[in-house]
Amino acid sequence: MSTVMDFTKQLNDFSTTFEQLAKVYDHSVQHSEQMENAINSYSHWITDKHHESFWADKELERSTDFEQLVLNLRQQSSLCVAIMEKYRAMKLQQGEVEIADYFKNIEECIEKEFGSFHVTSDSKVLLIGSGAFPMTPLLIARRTGAQVVGIDIDDEAIGLGQAVVETLGAGLRIHLQKALVQELAYTKEATHIIFSSTVAMKYDILDQLYSLTNEHVIVAMRYGNGLKSLFNYPQQATDHQKWRLVDNILRPDDVFDIALYQKASHAG
Ligand SMILES: C[S@@+](CC[C@H](N)C(=O)[O-])C[C@H]1O[C@@H](n2cnc3c(N)ncnc32)[C@H](O)[C@@H]1O
């Protein structure tokens, strides 16, 4: 790529591709390969350092058209990642297991998710936005023996997710449920809470969690700023009386980063 115009054109092309792929989703695996290719190319594109100077130029320009394109891409790519998880879950049921680059990326990240705030077998983990292919619950429960509850607002994602857990996580302490944080007694018991990066309302939910959680809880907020905000909802300021940033795990080669929060009274 040589000019900022090429940069914008490529983003417009991704936007068209994602819009079309989301539209043709028909609850079968028909278009799964195109989706996987599109998400993989986008993941590589987002983490390509050559694109950073073009991003900086566009940010300085502050054009409303470009801002709108960024918002659209974030929304469309989030929807497409959720659909891609559904494809992966359906393919697992049909006996096919493929791990696309995007998923490898997430798996590698899980080791570092809570920095020095380790998950142990006594921990109670809550994942907000567990998706149709709940890798985070599977990996945490398998590696640590912790109890994991995953919630999602999408019925189809919960149903497919439960089938994946039955297949890959038999015997693990994982429970998936369509619920909101305020409806779960478990929210108060949770020792560790993880937000999926593509949950649009994640900072509103974090604010709400202040009164719903115990004093010691640690929250891992997956996010993406700058170029990565094309694929993730970005970091936001929190009410300092409530949540304090205690660590920021930057992962230059991966699609999202992780901000860790604790209640202000515990953050030292
Ligand atoms: C890409 S998926 C899950 C990510 C991946 N499985 C992981 O382990 O990180 C994101 C999910 O968040 C869900 N979601 C979006 N907004 C939500 C909200 N407000 N509460 C709960 N889930 C939400 C979507 O329905 C989608 O299934």
Automatic annotation (TrEMBL):
Keywords (A to Z) from UniProt: Methyltransferase, S-adenosyl-L-methionine, Transferase
Q: Which organism is it from?
A: Paenibacillus xylanilyticus
Xref: InterPro entries: Nicotian_synth (IPR004298), SAM-dependent_MTases_sf (IPR029063)
Single annotated GO MF: methyltransferase activity
Which SUPFAM superfamilies does the protein's record reference?
S-adenosyl-L-methionine-dependent methyltransferases (SSF53335)
Question: What's the name of the protein?
Answer: SAM-dependent methyltransferase
**Biological process according to GO:** methylation; nicotianamine biosynthetic process
Family matches, as PANTHER family? NICOTIANAMINE SYNTHASE 3 (PTHR32266)
**Keyword Transferase (UniProt):** yes
